[in-house]
Amino acid sequence: MTLFKKITGLGAASILALGLAACGSDNANSSGSGSDSVGKSVDYKITGIDPGAGIMQATEEAIKEYELDKWKLVSGSGAAMTASLKKAYDKKEPIIITGWNPHWMFSKYDLKYLDDPKGVYGGAEEIHSIGRLGLKDDHPEAYKVLQQFKWEDTDMGAVMVDIQDGEKPEVAAQNWINENEEKVAEWTNGVNKVDGDKLKLVYVAWDSTIASTNVMKLVLEDLGYNVSISQVEAGPMWTAVADGSADALLAGWLPVTHQTYAEKFEGKYEDIGVSMENVKIGLTVPAYMDIDSIEDLKE
């Protein structure tokens, strides 16, 4: 999920001067009044991300639960999804995407989640740090850092916006660390330094996970670890931790987004702890669209 918050928007919005304002549209295609016109205006298409992401599985379930027989979910990359969003938003055209918080797009654009009365996308989610079995014994210092790793959407949002504005992920991560030494000190409290111990982190190409993985990489390296990071899709990410070929992942979105993987590999990994609470996934549209619920998509 850019593997995949019931926080309605990124707090980093205050640092982003983009001059974009939500406004009503006189274009009938943009207003999307009525389920039929909404469907026709977007060609009955929901713009998604990589097919292995949990949000894609949840959306397929939503299509079934809400009996959206004419609708189709189109897979792609997170970057392709946000590019489609930008293209539609700039022209005030309708679009329906798979969205999640935290994500920089909620700072840049005026967006809203569609109500989900059937609860297909679940309630508040959490982002968990997941480790391989034996990590605590092999690397107790790193394990303790991951266990104490907790931050807010505003923290992650600052890193994401920095990257979106053109900074390299490692530079954006270091900028945030430099400005948040007290918070980092909480993560490393009581942790001893090591001498070149190797660690491998895996992550999905979600903006949120790119941010957290690059920050944690630098924090662990400052403690003396030799950290490598590897980008994969959601399934291989969980597989790598479950089979021990990677040490940890920081993108365990539970209980809904990665439920399939958590259940598939149950007993083959350790849930180290929650790094962020009140995250959210769901169908998302620009605020200028005259639609409020997934049920409005059904004819």
UniProtKB/TrEMBL annotation:
Residues 37-179, 198-298 form the ABC-type glycine betaine transport system substrate-binding domain. It is found in: Cell membrane. It comes from the Bacteria. Keywords: Cell membrane, Membrane, Signal, Transport. Gene3D superfamilies: Dipeptide-binding Protein, Domain 3, Glycine betaine-binding periplasmic protein, domain 2. The keyword Magnesium does not apply. Pfam families: OpuAC. The keyword Cell membrane applies. InterPro entries: ABC_Gly_betaine_transp_sub-bd. Residues 1-28 form the signal peptide. PROSITE patterns: PROKAR_LIPOPROTEIN (PS51257). This is Glycine betaine/proline transport system substrate-binding protein. It comes from Lederbergia wuyishanensis.
